[in-house]
Amino acid sequence: MEFELSKPQKEIQKAARDFAKGEFDKEEGIAFSKSRKYPEKILKKAAELGFIGIHYPQSCEGAGMGMLENAIVAEQFCRQDSAMGMAVLLSGFGAECVFRFGEKEIAKRLVLPVVEGKALSALAFFETKMVGRIDAVSTLIAEDNGDIAINGEKNFVLNGMNADFYVVLGRNAEGASFAGDRFFLVAVESDRKGIHLTDAGQTIGNNMVSFGHVHFDNVRVPAENLLQKSGSGPDRPLALVNEARIQLSAMALGTAQGAFDRALDYIRQREQFSRKLAQFQVIRHKIAEMAARIEQTRWLVYKTAWKFDKKKCDAGDAAIAKLTASRCALEVTDEAVQLLGGYGYMTEYEVEHFYRDAKTIEIMMGSSFQLKDAIADVVIGKPGKK
């Protein structure tokens, strides 16, 4: 691995940074978060410049690049505004399932509007009783007269209230053993009869994105919507979980960097006892620790994304990146709030929303306990296996 970005990657990094600085308005971002409004206009502008679906294949009008390039964009967007960055970049959450596992026709039909910034997708994987275990899914998927029928409920689905389609994880309705190869992914358009939505309500962070509970009551879709025509256990769903964790790691990295930038600017300007805060050793050491933590995290996230592109990334790698980046974001944003003192709690100074968004990222796609289980399964082996 080269420990320096290539010239094209540096150009992508600069383009993403310039776009975010030019389009992510602070006051607009605050207003959108308070009103829980999605930034549709910014999404379309980002799509026009090729930032949406940068790692999607060219057959779906994506840029055909890799996870590393996607991570670079995610870092820069969330560095400027963590809430706005996540809202824009999570517009295609779950779309990867469609072009990786679906037929070309359905991939083009569903994914192309996402790349163009005209549609949102949602990953409907998790349920209340799953506790992070893919093999505990209870949503039932059955073949019926050539169609596919879906019955079940998914909780806290990101983009759940305004998605144009869902990628649903389910198991064979015949009741096959979880040990068998009976797990399926199916694309479900949101206008299908039998879909019922419940708003999950206000969240601590990431409030430009809706979270909803999605109930599927005998929802029927054509057989072509089945993204996994032959069962292969939970391997494919888990692969998508790993991919999502790397994306979130990059967003956590950008969130940490954004809070650090604002804290650094503050201590350079603020005076106490006729001295700049940046002149006090205790402050300098705090900044040094924050900078070191961010730099360590950056190269871990970049390396994990690079390994993913080389098809060398396993569940442990993705979990380590997510766990490390989440911790970095939480610790750095917390320290940034402390450095700003009372101003750290004020919306005007921004670090408070970076702090809240960091907590949101930590919870998404696996808590720290679930991530540690995934790491231990790779390092030690799964419980009960020699």
Which helices and strands appear, and what pairs or packs with what?
Layout: H1 7-23, H2 26-35, H3 40-48, H4 67-80, H5 82-89, H6 95-101, H7 104-115, E1 121-124, E2 140-144, E3 147-158, E4 165-172, E5 183-189, E6 195-199, E7 211-222, H8 235-269, E8 271-272, E9 275-276, H9 281-309, H10 315-340, H11 351-363, H12 368-379
- What spatial form do the alpha-carbon principal axes imply? globular
CATH topology of the largest domain, which one?
Answer: Butyryl-CoA Dehydrogenase, subunit A, domain 3
Give the proportion of residues in helices: 40-55%
Estimated radius of gyration:
21 Å
> Termini separation (Å)?
33 Å
Q: What do the pLDDT scores average to?
A: 90
CATH class bucket of the largest domain:
Mainly Alpha
Integer count of domains: 3
Tell me what you see in this structure.
This protein is α+β, with helices and mostly antiparallel strands and 386 residues long. It folds into three domains: 7-96 and 111-115, Butyryl-Coa Dehydrogenase, subunit A, domain 1, CATH 1.10.540.10; 121-225, Butyryl-CoA Dehydrogenase, subunit A, domain 2 (Beta Barrel), CATH 2.40.110; 235-379, Butyryl-CoA Dehydrogenase, subunit A, domain 3 (Up-down Bundle), CATH 1.20.140. Helix content is 50%, strand content 15%. The protein contains twelve helices and nine strands. The strands form two sheets. Strands 1, 2, 3, 4, 5, 6 and 7 form a seven-stranded mixed β-sheet that branches. It has a two-stranded antiparallel ribbon with strand order 8-9. Helix 8 (235-269) runs antiparallel to helix 11 (351-363). The two termini are 33 Å apart. The model is unreliable at 175-180 (pLDDT under 50).
